[in-house]
Amino acid sequence: MMPIEVSALKKCYGDLKAVDEISFTVNKGEVFGLLGPNGAGKTTTIEILEGLRAKDGGDVKVLGLDPWKNGYELHKKIGVIPQEFTFLEKITPREAIIYYADLFDIKVNPDEILKEVLLEDSAKTNFDSLSGGQKQKTGLALALVGTPEMLFLDEPTTGLDPNARRAIWDVIRGLKAKGKTIILTTHYLDEAQQLADRVAIMDHGHIVAMGTSDEIIAQHGSGERLEIHGTEELAHYIKANTELQVEYDRQRSIISIPLKQKIDALSALAAADQSKMDYGEIQTRRDSLDDVFVKLVSGRVDEHGEIISGNNENNRGAKK
Amino acid sequence: MSSGKRILSDFKVFSRGYLRNRFGLFFGLIFPVILILIFGAIFSGTGTSPVNVYVQNQDVGPFASPQMNIAQQFLNSLNNTGVIKITMVSDSENFSKYLASQSASDGIIIPENFSADYLVGNPVNVIVYGNPTSSTSSIVSGAVNGVINYFNLNYYKQNATPIISVTQTTVNTQQTKYIDFLVPGLIGFAILVSPMFSMVNISSEYKKTKIFKQLSLTPLTKNEWLTSKIMWYITLGVFSFLFMVAVGIFLFGAHITLTVWLIPFLILGPMMFCSLGMLVGTITKNPETAGVIGNVVTFPMMFLSGTFFPISIMPQYLQSIAHVLPLFYIIQGLNNVMVYANYSGAIIDLAVTAVITAVFFLLAVRLFKWRED
């Protein structure tokens, strides 16, 4: 049995299909990233897995349990930080840990947990006086109180500055090293690349790609290509004088030529030279996860998770 | 782990958080006491400044000698008591209309031929105007009675029958002071305001910021959570009650009775308004709407339920409105217990309060959800 098994999961808000028949499994001890822009269905998916939201269709098993029906059982085994974790204003991280331990009726050493999430220095500061990063760490600390086998982190670093984000990453890496299974949603590509063993890219309620970064790039990337910094005219010239496929990116003034074989690069350069036109830097490169992501979700995503370029900005469902 | 233990640990965390929040503490405990100090001071005559009394002296003489002007001697004696300050009103005025026009309730009328009648031994009658809800009135009637006794005593020496009597007008036979009404009223105020505003805010904010979701991931149940909140507001209400009773009795000399009858009101009251606040926060979409609805529900209750003044002085239509406000029955019940010792009335108020509380509580428990579908 896999720790998480999801098949044909469906959730609608009115007419909007927030999650549209997605299926995936998560392996034990793995960090699994759900990556996608806002409204892709990440939070809905993770909340259904946590037992905080009912599903409309499909099957979900988390640690062998139905999260909605057996929430009480499940919640003793998992740790969760909701998006933009907020807690009672006038409680310190240390007191919050003791409070949770009391509710779960377990004995914990609060200082050990505080150390694990790198929060010892703010142990006695009221929650409303903590920084964004410290608040998230408090959330992580609470998620760890029950020594869960599995952790759900919903956009754990959204809105944090780069330093705070890296600090959270360190904590997550530490948890991964302890063998915890972690499900992470994020709209930061670098976060997924830094932390996740496998990634599912979500868009409009669908999983559009899934696997390790390399697998996704191999599957959806274009392979090796030659890029020449030059004019559109030169691009036309190369296209006219070779058998090669030539694309032109006007914004970046880049002529891009997919290489079926490495020798193709030579014919392209020969044509460029022959044209007597000027051109700048040349390089060969492969698609990064970033390139594939832009291609798959039809646009780039800004730091708040909104699509900033591309052609399908409409119809994105608001999060509920 | 038992439910009780979880409730206690939540109670501990919530009360500690509450006490750390100076704003909440101010509104929960200090503000009602400030109100009682302000209103008590405004309407009590227990200060050193004399009570202003309007006097119409209809006894215009003629007098054979100044010694014969008994009316004037009577007024001088009143002045000499030091507790009242006399303002004369022309005898051409309609006295009761004049009092109303001055927003005053305390007045004295010395009748025509007062001096002559007194001297020849005909019975005379002094009319005293007063307001039962104002403690100044009892000071005035006390002073007048004292002076009359003195004059009667003087007369006795000669004739042996009391000759001056007093008629009290618009004065209820109930010798209740304003502060006696104010203490139960403001206890009701504290029972209403603190849990109501707090729970409206908490229930809508916790929903928005997903704290409820967060808590739903622990073994704490929503009913345990709500129970611990009610326990806290009962505790707070009891402290409020003790403060206000102490201020009322020791600072303003309120005459109030403390019996076990108060206990059910002090438990049901906070429970009622915790539930109502929870309901408002639950059925509204966001904290802003919840705040508006909360105010719409709370403010009329705050002023029209007999908190700051008895509803008997309000126009009839407002009195009818008061009867549909849940707080009214709590305050009336507290008045019946603390001021009138009218327990058969109190039991009806208690029954109405219990029913309303049960309805609000059950609705709140039913509609309030940790998680979303």
Distance between the termini of chain A: 31 Å
Oligomer: heterodimer
The total strand number of chain A stands at 13
Q: SSE order of chain A, as H and E?
A: EEEHEHEHHHEHEHEEHEHEEHEH
Explained architecture:
The complex is a heterodimer of chains A (320) and B (373). By secondary structure, chain A is an alpha/beta fold. Helices cover 33% and strands 24% of the residues of chain A. Chain A contains 11 helices and 13 strands. Chain A has helices spanning 42-50, 71-75, 93-104, 110-116, 132-144, 162-177, 189-195, 213-220, 232-241, 264-274, 289-296; strands at 4-13, 16-26, 31-35, 57-62, 78-81, 150-154, 181-186, 198-203, 206-211, 225-229, 247-249, 254-258, 282-285. In chain A, strand 1 (4-13) and strand 2 form a beta hairpin. Chain A is elongated, with a radius of gyration of 24 Å. The two termini of chain A are 31 Å apart. The model of chain A is unreliable at 310-320 (pLDDT under 50). Chain B is of the alpha/beta class. Chain B contains 14 helices and 5 strands. In chain B, helix 7 runs parallel beside helix 10, helix 7 packs antiparallel against helix 11 (287-304) and helix 7 (178-208) packs antiparallel against helix 13 (326-338). Chains A and B meet through helix 2 and helix 3 of A and helix 1 and helix 8 of B.
Topology:
The complex is a heterodimer of chains A (320) and B (373).
Chain A lengths: L3 E10 L2 E11 L4 E5 L6 H9 L6 E6 L8 H5 L2 E4 L11 H12 L5 H7 L15 H13 L5 E5 L7 H16 L3 E6 L2 H7 L2 E6 L2 E6 L1 H8 L4 E5 L2 H10 L5 E3 L4 E5 L5 H11 L7 E4 L3 H8 L24
Chain B lengths: L2 H18 L1 H22 L7 E7 L12 H11 L3 E6 L5 H7 L5 E4 L3 H7 L3 E6 L5 H25 L4 E6 L8 H31 L2 H6 L5 H31 L9 H22 L3 H18 L11 H7 L3 H13 L4 H25 L6
Parallel strand pairs in B: 1-2, 1-3, 4-5
Antiparallel strand pairs in B: 3-4
Labels describing this entry:
heterodimer; A: 320 residues; alpha/beta; six-stranded mixed sheet; 13 strands; elongated; disordered C terminus; B: 373 residues; five-stranded mixed sheet
